[in-house]
Structures are given as C-alpha cells and as structure tokens.
Amino acid sequence: MKTNRRILFTPIILLGLLSCGGNKQEVQPVRKNITETVFASGSIEAIDKYNLSAQTEGYLLDLFVQDGDSVSTGQLLARIDNSSTEAQAASAQQQLAIAEQNVSSNGPALKELENNIAFAEKKVSQDKLIFERYTRLIVSDPSGRIIIRPY
After folding, report:
1. Element spanning 79, H or E
2. Paired strand residues for 144
3. Alpha carbons 8 and 37: distance in angstroms, whole number
4. Mean pLDDT lowest for which of 14-18, 33-37, 131-135?
5. Cα(2)–Cα(124) distance, rounded to whole angstroms?
C-alpha cells in the first residue's frame, strides 16, 4: 500500500518542484485615475427645438426660413402647391352629393328597390294562381297513380 502511495505522489511532487523554478517576473502596481466609459444608444435633442410638418401634401414652392432661424407665431414659413389635394376634395364633395341623392326619398336606388318589390309581389300572385290551377288538374286515384284531368 505504501508503494502505491509513493508511486502516486512521487510524480506530483517532482512536477511541483520543477514548475516553481525558472524566471520570475515581478509586477509593480501603477497609480492612475479611474476612468469610466459607458456605452448606450440614444439621441440628443435640443431643449427648444420643434419639428414642423405640413398638414397637407403637395410640392414645396417657396421656403421663407433657413435652418437655425427663430420663428414667431403666425409667421409664414413655406408655400406648398396642393392642387392635387384640392382636386381630391372636390371629387369627394361630388361623391357625397351623389350619396345624399341616393338615400333621399326620391333617390334612384330606392325607386329601383320599390320596383323590385312590386315585381316580386306580382310574381308571387301569378305563381299562386298557377299552383291552384295545377292542383285542380292533378288528381290521384286510389291506386296512388297521378292522373291529369283535361281542361
């Protein structure tokens, strides 16, 4: 048992003795100020900065201010050609007038529906007469056969 321990511990002790020798490098501490660096994403905005946007679409014709200019309330900043928006507004007005006419009491859509209802009522009355006529013509005999009577 002692022999096994010697065999096991001898290489470990030799390895420890041999690895501790050799060149030793000394390190000296250096005094420096602490510097802290923080990495973060974001954006910086000025305190009195405002983003302006037009309330309509169109082409910019004239710009009366430059970047960094101070502006006051009611000051004209730019001129925009919005003729396409005006055309869209006129078209929307026409569509509104057509829709109002269609929902009025004399509107064409309502008149068409009234005509369809009257036609359907006439068709129902005609179909009822034809049904009564065929029921008088068709008689079944006691054997279960259907017999059609002549006029």
Report:
1. strand 78-81
2. none
3. 51
4. 14-18
5. 119
Angstrom distance (rounded) from CA 119 to CA 125: 10
The model's pTM is 0.33
110-135 mean pLDDT? 92
CA 113/CA 110 separation, integer angstroms: 5
- In angstroms, the CA 85 to CA 54 distance is 13
Question: How far, CA to CA in Å, does 136 sit from each of 74, 122, 129?
Answer: 88, 22, 11
Do the Cβ atoms of 77 and 65 come closer than 8 Å?
Answer: yes
Distance CA 8, CA 3 (A): 9
Say if strands 78-81 and 59-63 run parallel, antiparallel, or are unpaired. antiparallel
In this prediction, residue 133 has a pLDDT band, given cuts at 50, 70 and 90, of confident
Residue found under tokens 């919005």: 82
Type and span of the H or E element at 63: strand 59-63
Q: Are strands 146-148 and 78-81 parallel, antiparallel or unpaired?
A: unpaired
